[in-house]
Design goal:
Elements: H1 11-17, H2 44-51, H3 66-79, E1 83-87, H4 90-101, E2 107-111, H5 116-128, E3 132-136, H6 141-146, E4 152-158, H7 170-179, E5 184-187, H8 192-195, E6 205-209, E7 223-227, H9 239-242, H10 253-257, H11 261-274, H12 280-291, H13 293-312, E8 317-320, H14 331-337, E9 345-350, H15 353-363, E10 368-369, E11 379-381, H16 393-398, E12 405-409, H17 415-429
Parallel strand pairs: 2-3, 2-4, 4-5, 5-6, 10-11
Antiparallel strand pairs: 1-7, 6-7, 8-9, 9-12, 11-12
Helix pairs in contact: 1-3, 1-12, 3-12, 4-11, 13-17, 15-17
The structure holds pyridoxal-5'-phosphate.
Amino acid sequence: MTEIDPRAFGFDTRAVHAGQRPDPYTGARAVPIFQTTSYVFEDAESAAAYFNLQEYGNTYTRIMNPTVATFEERVGNLEGGAGGVAFASGLAAQAAAFFTMLVPGDHVVASSALYGGSVTQLKHLSRKLSLELTFVDPDSIDAWKDALRENTKLLYGETIGNPGGNVLDIQAVADVAHGIGAPLMIDNTFATPYLCRPIEFGADIVVHSATKFIGGHGTSIGGVVVEGGTFDWSNGRYPIVSDPSLAYHGLAFHDTFGMYGYLMKLRAESLRDLGGCLSPFNAFLFLLGLETLPLRMDRHVENALGVARFLQQHPAVERVRYPGLPDSPYAPLVAKYLPKGAGAVFAFDLAGGREAGQRFIQSLQLWSHLANVGDAKSLVIHPASTTHRQLNDDELAAAGISAGTIRLSVGLETLDDLVWDLERGLAAAAGSRVNGVAEVVA
Ligand SMILES: *Cc1c(COP(=O)(O)O)cnc(C)c1O
């Protein structure tokens, strides 16, 4: 008999093991892909108990699946939360997180530097669901405070904003939220739990687009919501979470499940009713991604810093907005929240504006021009004409984007090769002829 050692395992160990034991039926060491829609009940009684949420068991893969559950538990563990619920995409995860706690008439305060898709989502959802919405400069704690209203039910920001590189003072914004009995939700996609764990600094809910660094190889879309389990949903401001649920035969989620109340409601109601579940196969790929997350993030950060330093000294570059540079205005916040590095997604501004931007992107060979981040491969995009296209000029300016802004997602290639390609791009941007076409890259 081996005794269970109460050792607190390190992050890298948990990235490989959390939420999983070898499969009891087959001994399989890898996480099996349970590609099944549904599960045979042992008997009529346990079936009823599952559907009443009196017992926790698999019923139907829209609501839970063992492969997906391993992924949920692992991310929940790595973030230091009570648990997680996975979704078909990052935006599905965010939508469900809102849907679970907000009702018409509620007010949300969000960072103006959110991911473009999140800004668009919030604007349209708020109109359709009659929510009130205020975007604030995430760097100004006074702006967060001044935006609060009687009916403010959620504050929402990102660990590292896109593409401005704003690093959020999570602890200060969490204090503002908790001062009025509201939770702080953080999109931690760009940092991953390896670089920052917002719950340790007071955040209550963490959301991820697993599509990015968690998956890490540009293969799969998915998302996850993690909750800290410490927010008091029974403080009188969230009857939708604390009162008996009409959508669940009068079940009072927070009373019944305590620290798991919000997560249970997120799964049993929002995932059930909105239906955007993660496929078991994508969960499997995300689990593979998590196993190497610490290794990959170290290399992503190292390459990002190398690329940022190269760009910073180049005459065709006006400004580099990598918060990991020592002279970044965000350096003190990076030291506090991102001691292992400021991620690998950042923007820089080309001298010469829109045309220079297009010439630059078109002459690159190794960097792929596409709308994603967090891949092993290095990626590049021009936000004003793509990801942030739905935003008007004022919103663009509020998000810190200009016509010459280029966003990079620095991958895992040899740093010298990345710099070689950028050098060619910058020469093209500046209008000179590009020589020396590489033969190794198609
Ligand atoms: C991609 C992304 C999202 C949306 O996630 P999807 O998986 O594409 O739905 C949300 N937030 C951030 C920061 C992202 O990069």
